[in-house]
Design a protein that fits this description.
The protein is an alpha+beta fold. 49% of the residues lie in helices and 26% in strands. It has 2 domains: 16-62; 64-108, SH3 type barrels (Roll).
């Protein structure tokens, strides 16, 4: 297939006014789509994660001595002592293990 210069210039967009206004509309629609994607990601991913973190934090604050808990590693036990950052969990008779508060996954 042979191309000549007349065919190539006929396929090119016109220079001047029409090309500039089309670029602005295209830019605005791109920004709107970008904002929509960010909003969808926020409502589908970020917001639910923040909600789960708040619920987990409330659960950790409500744990007191005598509560039965499960750690993130799957150990079941009873809380025998709590500090600001740690909890001591009794997993068997005469067996106590100290965990970080964040390691407690659920309260039974």
């Amino acid at each position: 297939m042979i191309f000549n210069t007349q065919t190539l210039f006929a396929a090119a967009p016109p220079a001047g006014g029409q090309g500039a206004s089309g670029g602005t509309g295209s830019l605005i629609s791109t920004l709107v789509m970008f904002a929509a994607v960010i909003a969808i990601m926020y409502f589908l991913m970020i917001r639910p994660q923040q909600k789960r973190q708040k619920e987990h934090q409330k659960m950790l604050e409500s744990i007191k001595k005598g509560d039965k808990v499960v750690t993130s590693s799957g150990m079941h036990g009873t809380v025998v002592e709590t500090d600001e950052k740690t909890m001591t969990v009794q997993v068997a008779e005469n067996t106590k293990i100290k965990f970080e508060r964040g390691a407690i996954s659920t309260k039974l």
